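Message: Study each token:
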Amino acid sequence: MRGRQHAILAALLAAVVAACGGPGGEGDQGAAGKAAGGSGGAPTEALVKYYRKKANVPPAQPVEVTGVKDAPVGGLKEGTLQIGSPPQVRNVPFTMSSDGRFVIFAAAEDVTIDPSKAVMAKIDVKNQPFRGPADAKVTIVEYSDFQCPFCARGYTTLEQQVLKEYGDKVKFYFKQFPLGFHPWAEPAAIAVECAGRQNADAYWKLYDWYFQNQAQVNPQNVKEKAWGVLEPLGLDKAKFDACYDNKETQAEVKAEMAEGQSLGITGTPSFVINGRLLVGAQPFEQFKAVIDDELASAK
């Protein structure tokens, strides 16, 4: 059945190309070049030039073609346009004809696969601390920034309304997504992850404190404030100091950011609820609509 679906889709796309005056041979391909290839050459250059004009991308903003490979639909290529510089990178998937002349700025999707499960499969929660029961019907994963004021609003909505309203029906994971223009966001993320290495309670205690006390934190006192929260919990100070000072958890922080970007996340706060993306400091009603729908589907 799947092969037949692919054949039908490929035939439809081929018909569109033909109707639009698709090239008949190598000499007719023009600026598109001979074939859609890897990270260089006429096809990708033409694609970048076209997208810059189409999306009005500023000349100084980098645009790179990555991951070009055969698409699931025969005779087509797929890849990703990366727009911007880390940590503010936006990924735009594309599907194009093999000669690089025709393009759709979207990935080919298999409608026999649950899209929410495909999203959740990209999220690594192994050995991650969480709030709520392990067998909860709904999983919320938040990508956030401790210095972001909108994230503090999202924190309040989640902690004071969502988790209290749904109790054991929801499991919550927090992922680091410190934005580059927030000077103490990444140090705070490193501190929280260092605390988590010693125990989960310390992780959540510091997570709560940073969001509840943003006005008290600056780039110079991130570590001092963290230890003021952690000391009463009996953590090993030498281990915490070594972890923080040597940025031992920075790689974990960056990996969580990269994971979020792979899901199309570019700003904070962003919430993934059973694979469904909710962006921004949304009111409780927006969370409720998605969670109620997921709970109803799970029955």
Remarks:
- Confidence is low (pLDDT under 50) at residues 1-9, 14-40.
